[in-house]
Each structure stands twice: as structure tokens, then as C-alpha cells.
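Re: the 585-residue chain
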Amino acid sequence: MYRTHTCGELRISDAGKVITLAGWVQKTRDFGGMTFVDLRDRYGITQLVFNMETDAGQCKLARELGREFVIRATGLVAERSNKNPNMPTGDIEIFVDTLHILNPAETPPFTIEENSDGGDELRMKYRYLDMRRAPLQRNLMLRHRMAQSVRHYLDLRGFIEVETPVMIKSTPEGARDFVVPSRMNQGQFYALPQSPQMFKQLLMVSGYDRYMQIVKCFRDEDLRADRQPEFTQIDCEMAFVEQDDILNTFEGLAKHLFKEILNVEFPGKFAKIPYEQAMTEYGSDKPDLRFGMKITDLTEKVVGCGLSVMAEAEYIGGIVATGCADYSRKQIDDLTEFVKKPQIGAKGLIYVKYNTDGTIKSSVAKFFDAAALRGWAEVTGAKAGNLLLILAGKRDKTLKALGELRLEMGRQLNLMDKNKYIPLWVVDFPLVEWDEETKRFYAIHHPFTAPKPEHIPMLDIDPGKVHANAYDLVINGIEIGGGSIRIHDSGLQKKMFEVLGFTDEQAQYRFGFLMNAFKYGAPPHGGIAFGFDRWVSLFAGLNSIRDVIAFPKNNQGRDVMQDSPGIIDDEQLKELGIRIVTSDK
């Protein structure tokens, strides 16, 4: 056999045993008469010792080893004279009597250590080397543990895992589909699923009242730190349930994972915040509650102002940064540039410094006297030493900008403790939103989301005011998952399609098989899907999901390791009935 033990397994209690290890050479150190080799596998590192006096041949062979050589070594476990308390195997070493080079290796393009000297693109190009590093191994083992824990929890509660198709019909509503051409049906295309939404609803119609799947999903959308073109969901559906049944079940899953993986317990119920409150107080539908700094509405406090940006604003709001009255002009200017970024869109930033000596300094001091500025402090709760930051403009846009400013101040003031977790449910989302460009409503979640029962009559009067029977689980400002109670009544589903501007023919073409299934006895049902990659990265203390995915794509959606996507040859295109048309861009 190649090994009797792993490189992270041996302890002082194994001293005196003759063992065999196999793995990769982490590094070698030559001290004349002695050569030391650190041997690594995914379990850890063990020090090997070669002695020129006792076995010159094996010692010379050891000096030929380079980084990442694959070797096998047999020898005696002995207590180390200079122990390394930073290594689990640091109390022992192996005096090698037989060394075999199983495979030599070229010098890797970056160091395979805890902190590598390779940049992101280089490490992604050689991902198979990057995954030898301990941080990546810890992340992928964490992912494995979480997946097993999820399956165990749901299995005990009667959920069954059912695999759903990966090539489906395109139903463009939301993100763009990835499409797959059909050779046997030229001119027609499959789509890769953005989620198994319709299939899990069909499983409820089929009588499988508790479904789960850890499943790949695909969305052709612009990328960022917490997005990949292919990602993994914990996908679940339940029949004969109401909203609280689902929230209780999956709040239980969240608590189970926190306890099993991080040993963190939550004794009480998670907070539950309506969407409108989240937007009004935090400027976000996924508020980070690890710190306060709530938004305060100042619109009514600014009356008869000569400053046009405030006088003409639909909404004026502010946040209070504690202990920041000493912010310099440059720091204020940097914050102003931050809120003026295109993705945030504020026109400018107004500030008021309430100094510890009782004086007040403000960028709008010539428009408001000290009494007015003290009035703002009373409304916002600002005290001596605090900095009040104010934005003005259209209500929704300004609230979102204040939400981004709040998060930026949270980062600057180190208020986002990665070891503190505050989960909450955000509920009562709008059902639909109006798009001015296309002059139609779009579903906030998806077309199968049920409205609140008491709001159903408003679908005919004012759909924009209808609340959805939907919910998101948010942890530390990250949307971990979301779901809804589904529409199970054919008549209500037809009404929803009408609100979304679908003709009967369009609805039948896109979703006919689901609508037809509802005619045969669909139970009340609902579900939720969690971003598994996001959840793992949260538990790993990372800001990006890339390092919890074995083979991720870069920010341009490319796999730089295998250089995909790539072109296909003319013969394949001919078989598919496809001709490439060059864009003018």
C-alpha cells in the first residue's frame, strides 16, 4: 500500500512505530549532514528526516526533491527534540529509511502555502494547484460538512431528495437564460434552469409533500463577489403549509447549521421585519443588523429652505455616525464621491458635525441657523461628537443610497464583526413592480408567488400595492435564501398572468404544463431556496463565493483554467443548424 497513515494523523503516542506516508513535498531544508522535508496531504504536514551519516544514499535522494514532488516515505516515528506547537504533528518526526519518488514536479507558478504569492487570475488558471492550499481545502471540507448536515436535518423531517431536469424550456422572466441548441430539433433550444421552480411545484401536485435538492442553477447575469453563472441552491418545497410553517422549519435548519458547524446558538425566534420597514430604516431589503445607524426621515424638518437640492427633494433622510465629528474635509469629500458613484446615484452629500465643544459645523450652515441644526439632532438622536450625513432626492433612490452610505460607514468604523451573526426574516415584499420602459408589471419574485390573501382584490385595482406572501432569510446583510407561498388556484394564476401582461396564448406556451397540472388537484404549497455558496462563504468568513467553489468562473464568466467558453468547429455548427453572425460592436 502507498501509505499506512495520513500526514496529519501521527502523534507522540505513535513514537516507535514504522509507518509509510505519501504526499506532496511542501519544502525541503538542507543543513549539511541532515535534510528535512515537510510532506503534505489534505490532512496536514509531517516532517521527514534524512541523515547523511546513517544513510547517505537516501539523504542524497532527498536533496533532489523539489516543491510538489509526489513521494512515498517509510520510516520510524520519533519524538522531536525541537517541537513545533503550531502543527498538530509538531511533537514527532519520521526518520526515513526508504524514499520513493512517485512523480517529479515542475516548480509551481506560485507558492502553495497558507498565504500564496499568486494573484487571483493566476491561481484560477492553476486551480488544481490552488486547491492544494490549506485555506481552499478547509473551505471545501466546510462545504461538504454543511451539505451533509443539511441533508441529515431535512431527511429527519420527511424531506426526500428528487433530481430535476437540467435541460428545460426557456421561460425568459427575470435573469437571462443560458440556452442549449438541439441537434435533433434544429432551430429549437433548451434552457439551463435558473431554478427548479416549476418542477418542485409539480412534485407537490404529484403528492411528494416534502421535497429537497442541493442543485445546480444557471443565470446569465452580470457577476459580482456573491454571484457566479452557475451556482448551488438548497431547494425545498412543502405542501399543505402556510408561511409560518415554512419559516419555522427553515429557521430550524439555520439554527441547526449554526450549532453543528460553528457551535453558535440562537435561543429565541429570529426577528421578522416587513419589507417597507427594512427599506425605510436601513435602505435595504437585506439589512445588516450588526450595527444601528438607522435612517431618519428629515423631510418635514426642512421647510422653506433656500437650498434647491433640499427644497425640491421628495425625500430627505440622514444617518448618524457616532464619534465621527472629527472627520477631516478629505474624509467627507471621499464620502461625497462614494455616494455620487453611478451605481449609487446621489447628487451630493450634506453633513453636520456636532462637535464635543458644543459648536456645530455644517456644509449648509448659511441656509440653516444653529437652532435648526440642533432640531435635526433632536430628531436623529445625534449627540456631541457625532456626524450627521444627509441625502436628498427621490424617495426610493435616496433611501437606497443612504443604505449604501450606512454600510460604507459600518465598514469604516469596523462595525461588521464577522464573529457576530444576526439572522432575520424580511417579509411582506411587493408582489410586482412597474417598469416604465416596457409599460408593464414584472414579478418581484416569480409569476407563481401568491399575493397576501387579503390583498387579492387589489389585483384589479392597484397591483403595485399588493404584498406578496414571500419571505427572505437575511444574515449580516446577506440574502441567504428566499421563497414564497405559491399560487395553487388556476383562476388566481390566470389573474396573475394578466397582471404581468401575458396573453392567454403566451401564458399557455410558457407555463401551460404547470397550469394544466393545477387542474388535477394542486395542494396549497410553498417553498424556499437558499444560496448554498453564499451560506458556506458566510460561515467561512469570506466576502466572495469563489473560494468555496471548486472550479469557479472569473468576473467575466470565464473558466481561465480550461479556457471556456470557447469556439466550436464548423462541423458542429452545421449539425446544430447554427450560423455565427459577427456583432458590429
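The first strand starts at residue 18 and ends at 30.
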